[in-house]
Amino acid sequence: MCIRKVLHLLGIVTAASALVTMMVSASGNSSFVQGEQKFTANMTDKEEVVGVHSPEFESEKNIDSVKDADQRSGITYPAVANGMVENNTITKVKLNMTQFQEINKSQFKKAPEFAQISGYINTPNNNSPITLSSLKGKVVLVYIWTYTCINSIRPMPYIHDWDQKYSDKGLVIVGVHSPEFGFEKNYANVNDAVQRFGITYPVILDSDHGTWNAYENNYWPRYYLIDTQGYIRYDHIGEGSYDQTEKAIQSLVAERAAMMGANEISFDANPTTLIKPGSLYYVDLSQSITPEIYIGYNTARTPLGNPEGFKPDQTVSYSIPSTKNFKPDTVYLQGNWKNNPDNMELQNDTGRILLPYHAKSVNIIAGGKGGGVVFNDDEEGGGAAAASTVKIPNKSLGADLSQDGSFRIDGQRLYNLAIHNNYTAHNIVIDVKGKGFQFYTFTFG
Questions:
Q1: Which domain holds residue 434?
Q2: Do the strands 350-368 and 293-294 form a parallel or antiparallel pair, or are they unpaired?
């Protein structure tokens, strides 16, 4: 399933990880020491702590002062000294190889090799295989995603940012494209999506879910951060916690640098890319949002609003009821639609889709032929207007709409139909034009 909410297992890292980062200072008082004792007392034998010393005073930048403070405070976990910030753009971190050598990795799971890969994108000639074993000595972020899942799309600006900031420090990002729908197995479709999203790191096609199964995964998206020796050190499910993930990346590239003999490493201290509220990539995970709505008799989790309901493999003539009392988060259809296992397909030249929902934005995954005209938030709540031919003013044009509210199907992909100013109840009406129009799901942000 596509996952919007974040699962926190062990704070910065999950149970598979051994590196827990704590921010410490040489002038820490007894309350800090007590807090540190409580923190470590609750840890399992699968965790270790690495303290990142961030100085408050000039004298605290001296490595000998940090060592003395460690001994006075009784700190036993490894610590790296976070050096001065120059012009608020660069952070220098002092490194100690011995401290990283002391991390016991025998408890961690080795990352499985990529399995049953059917294609490669952004590798030499777009056909050169890339294996996990060939990346030994690098820090590898394995990102499992699929191109129509909005939860996989929204993290992309952050992943792009990490690629830009840490690739020269040994980070390699590998996108593992594991499809949800049959059409997502098509190489051309995935390649088009990679180009559209501006992805430049390697993408491997896991069309038969061989790698998905090898990693025992059940979610889109999922991140696995793998160290230079091939151990999974960080595991994160879903969106959000981007600062946490970036800190884990920094920890492992710092470890890599230390093991290669470096005495310090520098990081860009500028904040991660900020996402504007009017962007497809924006979501407020604290808000109540309509869950994904699947359309298709095998994939649907909720019934249609029409009394006819789903009729497997049949073409059904649907009519939208003449009422204002439409059920929220429920799809209503008008026209002749063929019921397919994972989609609905229009069988005549025109049709209509009505959906009341609660979110800031709405997307449709669609394909086939034709297109549509979108109307957002009519004054009467979508009722009388939806059931008639009244044109509803379009107040919240989505990214894939023309100024007249229309869109054309140019491939099997996600189309953004509305971006509103707030999280509240909305309704959308789509006047569909073109026999062969297919839609699979609605997703929200």
A1: 293-444
A2: unpaired
